Amino acid sequence: MSITAAMVKDLREKTAAGMMDCKKALTECDGDMEKAVDWLRQKGLSKAAKKAGRATSEGLVGFELAADGKSGVAVEVKCETDFVARGDKFQGFVKDMVAQVAKGEYADSEALLSAPFVADASVTVKEALDGVIATTGENMGLGKFAKMELAAGKSGLIGGYLHSNGKLAVLVEMQTAAASEAFHEVAKNVAMQIAAASPLAVSAEGLNPEVVEHEREVYRQKAREEGKPEQIIEKIAEGAVKKFCKDVCLLDQLYIRDDKMTISDLIKGAAKTIGEPITVVRFVRIQLGAE
């Protein structure tokens, strides 16, 4: 019996199994839809939908820096247990997703899930994910992802850091005219700072104005509740906002490996060593399960 695309689509909607698995089931069962459903259940391939509501608090952040230093990728892939996260099947899928993001351009998760899977173009990323779900017996999902590339015509590199537990990764773009060992070292240290201190922006100019104003208003109200005179409340709020900015802006943060200097001091020191200015352009920090 000829197996049509409509039949495969119908079976997929009933079982949430992968397209190729549905086609195989219909072929094995001579196009009988009910038998095909049972065939998929017996093979453990129709479980993805049943697991969709289960919490995915474990997983890994896949990470890779290009050998030429011009790009980097980080991808969050979630599952239910650390046991599965340490398994070959899950880790192989994470590596495939790193390659997927590295080779494509995706506006959002929906575009990524609907794209042809890099390891098997006959299925989509979503279908490949469903296959891993069926094999491992756990709910899974794709979280945040990022691909960072060195701006066209600029000299520098995409640096990065992957925490030893595989659950936190950082990408950072840094520019300078003369890439050197000292430049690579400072890029690594800046990435580690971002991982440990979780800044919100490179500098105060990059902070969301709404976030800054929210902090300002919090301290205004705090001062009023403490009975401070109205004429000094703005001064108190501004002082608090300045401290907030130092805490959350990368360049103003105290260096985690030497709290006698800021990250700005660290970069200036490295720039003096190599004889060229160094600029931190942007960064991305992806931590498993973080908002």
Structural write-up:
α9 crosses α10 (230-248). This protein has a three-stranded antiparallel β-sheet. Helix content is 46%, strand content 22%. The chain has eleven helices and ten strands. The model has no long low-confidence stretch (mean pLDDT 91). It is an alpha+beta fold and 291 residues long.
H and E order: HHHEEHHHEEHEEEHHHEEHE
Query: Which structural class is indicated by helix and strand composition?
Result: alpha+beta
Number of strands: 10
* Share of residues in strands: 15-25%
Q: Report the average pLDDT across residues.
A: 91
The N- and C-terminal alpha carbons lie at a distance of 50 Å
Which residues sit in consecutive blocks of at least 5 with pLDDT less than 50? none
Computed CA radius of gyration, to the nearest angstrom: 25 Å
Query: How much helix is in the residues?
Result: 40-55%
Q: Describe the global form.
A: elongated
The spatial strand order of the largest sheet comes to 1-2-5
Count of individual helical segments: 11
Largest sheet: 3 strands, antiparallel
Oligomer: single chain
What structural keywords apply?
291 residues; alpha+beta; three-stranded antiparallel β-sheet; 11 helices
